[in-house]
Amino acid sequence: MQDSSEYTEPTAFDASDLFNIEGRTAVITGAAHGLGLAIATAFVGAGAKVGLIDIDADALAGVEAMLNKRGQAVAHAVDVRDTDAVTAAVRAVASQFGGIDILVNDAAIFPSAPLADIDLDEVATALDINVVGYLRTVQAALPYLEASGRGRIINFGSVTFFLGNPDGLGAYIATKGAVVGLTRALAREVSPLGVTANVLAPGAFPTRAEFGLYEDPAAFDRSVIEKQSVKRRGSVSDIGATAIYLASDASAFVTGQTLLVDGGWTFN
Ligand SMILES: NC(=O)c1ccc[n+]([C@@H]2O[C@H](COP(=O)([O-])OP(=O)(O)OC[C@H]3O[C@@H](n4cnc5c(N)ncnc54)[C@H](O)[C@@H]3O)[C@@H](O)[C@H]2O)c1
Question: Rounded distance, CA 205 to CA 221, Å?
Fold first, then answer.
C-alpha cells in the first residue's frame, strides 16, 4: 500500500496558456452574420486565421475585408448544400493557411410554420442546411483536423431543442436536436483520432434573426431576462469567448458535450 503522505500534488502548470489559439486555422460557416461573424471576429482577435463560408456573398466580402485589417481571413461564398463547393472551399483554406485546426458549423435557416402543415420540402431544405451541411464540412475537414493533432469541431445547437418551443419553429428545433445526436456520435468516432466534437447551444441572442421580429423589443428583452438566471441579455462576446474555449487546448478533455450558453435559462 502506498503512503498518501508521500504523494506530491501536481502544481507546475499554467492553465491560462491553454486558451491560446494564436496561429491556429479555423473554418467557420455562417460567418457573414450574427453569431458566426461574432466567432470569426473573436478568433481573429485571438490571433487565429479564419476561412469564412457563407451563402451571402456580398456581406461575406465585407466581413473578409474588415477582418483582414486586423488579421488573416479568406472568404468562400458557398452554399453548404453544395458538397463539391464545400469540399473545394475547405481544401483551399487548408492549402492557403497550412492546415485546419478548428471547424465551426454555424450556418442555419429558421423555417417558421406549425409542424401540422409545414411544407415538407422546407423541412428537407432545413435538414440539408442545418444538419447535412454540418456533416459535409466535417467530411471535408476531418483529414486536416486529424493531422492538426488538436482538431476541434464546434456545431451550433440551440436552447430551443431543450425547450421544445417557441411555437412555429418545430422543424428548426428538430434540426437542432439532430445536431446534438450527430455531434455525440461524431465525438465517439473522432475523439480517438485526436479531434473533439461539441455543441455550442446559445440561448436567445439579439442577432439579425431576432431584429424586427417583435413590435416591442424592450418587452421581448424583459421576457427573455425573466426566464434566465443571469439577469441581462446575452452578447456576441459571450459566444466568442465560449467558442475560444471550445477551440483551444483548454477543452482538450471535453467531447460529445452540449454547452448551453443561455444565462441559465435551461439546465442540461
Ligand atoms: N441568435 C440566436 O438567438 C440563436 C439562438 C440559438 C441558436 N442559434 C444558432 O446560432 C447560429 C447562428 O444564428 P444567427 O442568429 O447568427 O443567425 P443569422 O441568420 O444571423 O446567421 C446565419 C448565417 O448562416 C448563413 N447561411 C444560411 N444558409 C446558408 C447556406 N445554405 N449556406 C451557407 N451559409 C448559409 C446566413 O447567410 C447567415 O450568415 C445558428 O446555427 C442558429 O441556429 C442562434
Answer: 10
Taking the C-alpha atoms of residue 260 and residue 203, their distance in angstroms, rounded to an integer, is 7
Q: Could you tell me if the CB of 178 is within 6 A of ligand 1?
A: no
Give the ligand 1 atom nearest the CA of 106: 41
Please give the residue that has the higher pLDDT: either 1 or 85: 85
| Residue 198 DSSP code | E
Taking only Cα atoms into account, the Rg of the chain, rounded to an integer number of angstroms, comes to 19
* Domain covering 21-208+235-261 assigned CATH 3.90.1150.10 in the classification: no
Tens of pLDDT along 67-79?
999 999 999 999 9
> How many angstroms separate the alpha carbon of residue 131 from the centre of ligand 1?
12
For the chain, the first-to-last Cα distance in angstroms comes to: 40
262 lines ligand 1 (CB under 6 A): no
CA–CA dist 152, 34 (Å, integer):
21
